[in-house]
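Researcher: Let's try something more involved. This one mixes different molecule types, so please make sure each is placed in the same coordinate frame as the others.
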Amino acid sequence: MKIHEFQAKQVLARHGVPIPRGRVAATPDECAAVAAELGGGLCVVKAQVHVGGRGKAGGVKLAKTPDEARQMGAQILGMDIKGLTVHKVLVEEGIAIDKEIYLGMILDRDSKRIVVMVSAEGGMDIEEVAEHSPEKIARCTINPALGLTDYQVRHLCFGAGLPKDKVKEIAVFLKALYQAITQSDATLAEINPLVITKDGTLIAADAKMDIDENALYRQKELALLQESEENDPIEEEARRRGLTYVHLDGDIGIIGNGAGLVMTSLDVVAREGGKAANFLDIGGGAKAEVVRNALEVVLLEPKVKGVVINIFGGITRCDEVAKGVIDAAGRLDIKVPVVVRLEGTSVEEGKKLLAESGLNLVPAGSMREAAAKVVELAYAGGR
Amino acid sequence: MSIFINHETRVLVQGLTGREGRFHSEQMIAYGTQVVGGVTPGKGGTTELGVPMFDTVGQARAATGADASIIFVPPAGAADAILEAIDAGMPLVICITEGVPTQDMVRVYEVLRHTETRLIGPNCPGVITPGGCKMGIMPGHIFKPGIVGMVSRSGTLTYELAKNLSDRALGQSTVVGIGGDPIIGTAFIDVMKAFENDPATEICVLAGEIGGSDEETAAAYIKTMTKPVIGFISGRTAPPGKRMGHAGAIVSGNKGTAQAKVDALEAAGVKVAATTDEVGELVEKTLREKGRLPAAAAR
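Model: All components are placed in one shared frame. Result:
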């Protein structure tokens, strides 16, 4: 789960990381008010969206006066950055930058530990540094029993060629970042850049954190920050109904049980010439109501020209799935073809229910057949 | 023969009295799995499903001689349950639980890497040696005893592939679901090594998906294997940055793409199927070419 820059900074501040003074604003006037609060001098207005590359997209701007802050706010608020609309900006005091350093920690699936990365070339695109000059990034993995040790901090700071007179201070930032990532159940925590200002002080000018969704049950405060990834109303609705739904940009609705099977269904539909409108996993052991919800949510996308339901029943019973489909089809006025492929537990009962329902549901014997049928029927009236 | 489990495996169920634990314990017993005990703190001394219950894994292992444990404990207690099983010296631990916090698994793995215990999962369907032992939540009837060793990151996709094989009279030696989480106890490479050394396995199927680099790591080992391997990768059309259900199934930047995995596997001599149907076709064709197609499957 992604959280915004200003939220990540608040988490870091709680662990003792110095952050610039500032506040979130939702209107141009609020931007001007915050700028005035900060003293009316140089400030920066930053789009708060769950995506990287905000600066390059024009979502970060400097303002010399509160009036300029209002103008910049007006430009950035409502702006579209990589498909996301900006609803909030962070207005912060300006910083006189001397050096920019990168500090990052990520839960690494290969080493099965937290990996720390430090580079003297912060601020810019760290992925580019990683790709073209990996030697400029010092890294090490942290033993969870020991935590981040002092010698590792020295290895990182000296290895990355950071200013020697600042190593002790940067060590404090690294330890705080490790505290933040572990105590917040984050899977990623970055300070980029960590700025050394012209007067020699250190401050976290930007921050990023991703929180492990599996841990939200014990991160109650952070759980409140959850927003639909892209402010997508259908994803929001799906989440409200407890469904694992990812909105995609095609026009074939896809419902299945189990992530691997749904992903494969997407692939098979693509092979048959269709494009998936979504990923929707009803999970294991779904009852009729879940299936009904799933069909309703998928049909919220007006582009959908056909739906394929692909179920391999293990703990999920095919007759429950059939009941849900029939229930949904009875309540909704479904105008698009719905192809249903059932296999596994209680498959015969499920097929019988569908056949006897008198509803216009198209049965299919295999995943491939289901995909071919839905594509054929969906595009029968043209694309 | 088989890998990890067989008809002699003595199984302990951690969390037997929970809703999932009870249902699947019944199913496992019905399949013929030797469930010798259950652990639910506070229920020690009672009997459930005809099986003796214990308060701790240590007590249960000492009393029953269990040599494998399956965990149905809810996410908040799952990591602790794994640690308890490791501490009791359990040789095999299978964690079915979905939703275990990743940092809990970081701590578990730090302990695990210094022990002899094999952990499978979490967030996995389990392991089945058809006709011998089922330790998991898979529907037993779609699997048939045979010579195909199968390993996958996902549950229902495994069922799809196994049924496809079974329908062709191509049974399985053992089928392993390693799980869809970022940090899991057993990787593809570990399972491939076990299959390579298993006399009952003549051909392997590896079903991977986007995210991570476990498939690529396995590919380097597969290059050295004597047994043929058929591959399948799901998520070929998944857009980058979108998590596809499994916590681990996400393409970030250009890492973890389906194409990179297909390329790595093909470079290792793996025939990679484009569809689930093709997996069965390729297994059949490869065995026929080697003159090893079982009589029942020869048509």
